[in-house]
Batch of 2 targets.
Target 1
Amino acid sequence: MKGSRDPLEGVHPLVRAAKPVVDAVGAAVVGVDEAEPADVPLIWDGEMIAAVRLPPLHGALDRLIDSVEAELGGRLPSLSREAKQKAIRLLDERGAFILRRAVEDVADAMGVSRITVYNYLNAIHR
């Protein structure tokens, strides 16, 4: 497109390559001078070129639900039964149900009962 610029123009190739993963997990790339001990360093040829700051666990389930909704193309309550089952499978694969109260929170977000979520999970694990 005429006049449009690549927002990652001039960015180190490792940062460019990592950007989709960083975005998918809700993390952020920070400069070397901003890096904190808990950040994950991005090392290229033995030199730290940036760092990845992971998001806090608070809100992790909401971010997982948002990503599944984006992937499936709709809000959880409006999905078909089959799409809801797929959403539960995706959330399960991404570790959502290891979080405390996740079944209850997903059921609320989906507009179904806890029993329905447990039934979908049982069907997946059979």
Note: The first helix runs from residue 13 to 24.
Target 2
Amino acid sequence: MKNYTITVNGNVYDVTVEETGSAPSVAAPRRTAAPAAAPKAAAPAPAAAPAASGAAGSIKIEAGAAGKIFKIEKKVGDTVKKGDAIVILEAMKMEIPAVATEDGTVASIDVAVGDAVEAGALLATLN
């Protein structure tokens, strides 16, 4: 028996796992862990771009939830009104728009389609 402490969505669980020696239950998590590690490795690359272009706009548009960039609705230079969708984020099989918080012009798009982002990540800036 092995004891583990696991945190899920901020809730902490103490789990006891009995080892039975069956290998298939060990192989499945390894397959799911490899793809999960790849997006996390890819996420820092877009995070470096906001540092360079973050000064492009004074109004920040940030991700409301962790997910994957599904679609980019606007491009740099487009005029937007408050509430216009700029980036569509896919999280938990839902499409969540990241919208302009006020009227302005898109100064930078700091992500690309397919990028994995964390909640609060910079997606775009407006002037």
Note: The chain has one domain: 1-127.
